[in-house]
């Protein structure tokens, strides 16, 4: 045999040997993954044995039709007391909780956010106050709390008024056409405008800025993409996800969001290079949100890193406008579908502001009936439908049932607020549930979560919701569009698949 033929034979033999080794390694890896899948599933089955649930497929889990997640969970609330397992797929499940006693137990602990769930949000908003855990979270929370002191929040009411009036002026022009209006996008731009001015010191009105609309669209895309990825077994791996069309869209939307926040940070840093501006900031009795971040010192004396700074800005930019926009949109929709309560709120607001008085912090406290309606709307349409925790140690609930360390618990605030054992006739809009003399469980109403990790901006959000309702009712009668009834979908915040459409009738 010639040398070339011999070399060729050896090469083929070597390649065949490599293929055999690769096949063996692949088979071993497959067996390892199968064993891992089996053991994890058996562990979860044992962990959930005290909590019955509907039958599920061994691999595909509980089959839920697209955009039927909320209806599916509510169908279980009456059948399975307090909590029920939800299987996403074979070895991925969590216990969904909708009982106030269970809520109180979990929110009274310091379990971390469920990494397997929230890791998909991290490339977008980073590890800021929403995603941090442990001592680092505590340091950031303590550092940012002064930004929400009532002395800071009081003058923000005037800024909210100005932003809302710009939106209502636009609505007035659009209402002449006598068509229904999709309000969520308008309200999102308005709440973004407000947060930019209040928390980040921006001066310009951004409600007519096309770049701001691009940011709003990016946030909408990210909401949808994160939720879809959480529920897709084939999109869990970062490398695989990055190769998909959804992965590429997610990366582009993250870039748009980061460009927006980077611009805000860099503008503020540039302003602080000016000695006059720096002196003005130092003379403030209390610093606003971005100033606190830029001047912050951690316990070791170091400043926030650029990565930490951007994470907090990205987090608050999203949390400060999108959740509030969801709340305001659903409140206005609820009032449109309950005209008698809308009129009572309008009469209350007219009695307080009818003589041309300005909306102030003090007047917001006097809007008793309107506040009751706002809270009842937040119960029906909870802006943040759920949060998840990963148990850092075993837990035993008041009824004696228990879970081991490592289980993911989802706190379904939406289901809690629609639980008939907690709220009789839960689908009925009844603001008197929140009358001053009413009594209820301390953890039966959690639109801003609860415990030490409750929403740091809840007072800011409540103020903006009440200002928006008051000023809108002074100018418009709100009517629903019966041809476009909202289809609720749970995302990071509660949205409608087909938008939220209202007809606006200008008041004389």
TrEMBL record:
GO terms for biological process: arachidonate metabolic process; icosanoid biosynthetic process; kidney development; lauric acid metabolic process; linoleic acid metabolic process. Belongs to the cytochrome P450 family. The gene is LOC105986168. This is Cytochrome P450 4A12-like isoform X1. It holds the Pfam family p450. GO terms for cellular component: endoplasmic reticulum membrane. InterPro entries: Cyt_P450, Cyt_P450_CS, Cyt_P450_E_grp-I, Cyt_P450_sf, Cytochrome_P450_Monoox. PROSITE patterns: CYTOCHROME_P450.
């Amino acid at each position: 045999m010639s040398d070339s033929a011999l070399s060729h034979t050896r090469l083929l033999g070597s390649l065949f040997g490599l293929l055999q080794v690769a096949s063996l390694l692949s088979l071993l890896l497959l067996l390892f993954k199968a064993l891992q899948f089996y053991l994890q599933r058996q562990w979860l089955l044992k962990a959930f044995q005290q909590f019955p649930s509907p039958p599920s497929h061994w691999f595909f889990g509980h089959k839920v039709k697209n955009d039927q997640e909320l209806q599916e969970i509510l169908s279980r609330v009456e059948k399975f007391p307090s909590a029920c397992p939800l299987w996403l797929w074979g070895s991925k499940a969590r216990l969904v909780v909708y009982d106030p006693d269970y809520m109180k137990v979990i929110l009274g602990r310091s379990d971390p956010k469920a990494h397997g769930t929230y890791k998909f949000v991290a490339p977008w908003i980073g590890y800021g106050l929403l995603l941090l855990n442990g001592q680092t979270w505590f340091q950031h929370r303590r550092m940012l709390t002064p930004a929400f002191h009532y002395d800071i929040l009081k003058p923000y009411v005037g800024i909210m008024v100005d932003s809302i009036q710009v939106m209502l002026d636009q609505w007035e022009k659009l209402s002449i056409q006598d068509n229904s209006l999709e309000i969520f996008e308008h309200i999102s731009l308005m709440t973004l405008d407000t947060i930019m001015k209040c928390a980040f010191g921006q001066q310009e009105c951004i409600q007519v800025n096309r770049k701001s609309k691009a940011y709003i669209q990016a946030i909408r895309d990210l909401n949808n993409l994160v939720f879809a990825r959480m529920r897709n077994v084939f999109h869990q791996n970062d490398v695989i996800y990055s190769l998909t069309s959804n992965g590429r869209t997610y990366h582009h939307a993250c870039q748009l969001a980061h460009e927006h926040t980077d611009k805000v940070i860099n503008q503020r840093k540039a302003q602080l290079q000016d000695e006059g501006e720096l002196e003005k900031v130092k003379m403030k009795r209390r610093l606003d949100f971005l100033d606190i971040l830029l001047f912050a010192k951690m316990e070791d004396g170091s400043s926030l890193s650029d990565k930490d700074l951007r994470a907090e800005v990205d987090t608050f930019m999203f949390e400060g406008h999108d959740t509030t926009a969801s709340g305001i949109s659903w409140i206005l929709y609820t009032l449109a579908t309950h005209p008698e309560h809308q009129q009572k709120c309008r009469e209350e607001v007219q009695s307080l502001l009818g003589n041309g008085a300005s909306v102030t912090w003090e007047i917001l406290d006097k809007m008793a009936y309107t506040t009751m309606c706002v809270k009842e709307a937040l119960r029906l349409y909870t802006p943040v439908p759920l949060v998840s925790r990963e148990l850092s140690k075993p837990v035993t609930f008041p009824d004696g049932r228990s879970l081991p360390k490592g289980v993911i618990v989802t706190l379904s605030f939406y289901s809690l607020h629609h639980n008939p054992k907690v709220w009789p006739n839960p689908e009925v809009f009844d603001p008197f549930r929140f009358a001053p003399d009413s009594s209820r469980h301390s953890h039966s109403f959690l639109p801003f979560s609860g415990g030490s990790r409750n929403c740091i901006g809840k007072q800011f959000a409540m103020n903006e919701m009440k200002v928006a309702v008051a000023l809108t009712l002074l100018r418009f009668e709100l009517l629903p569009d019966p041809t476009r009834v909202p289809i609720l979908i749970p995302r990071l915040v509660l949205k409608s698949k087909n938008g939220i459409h209202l007809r606006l009738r200008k008041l004389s």
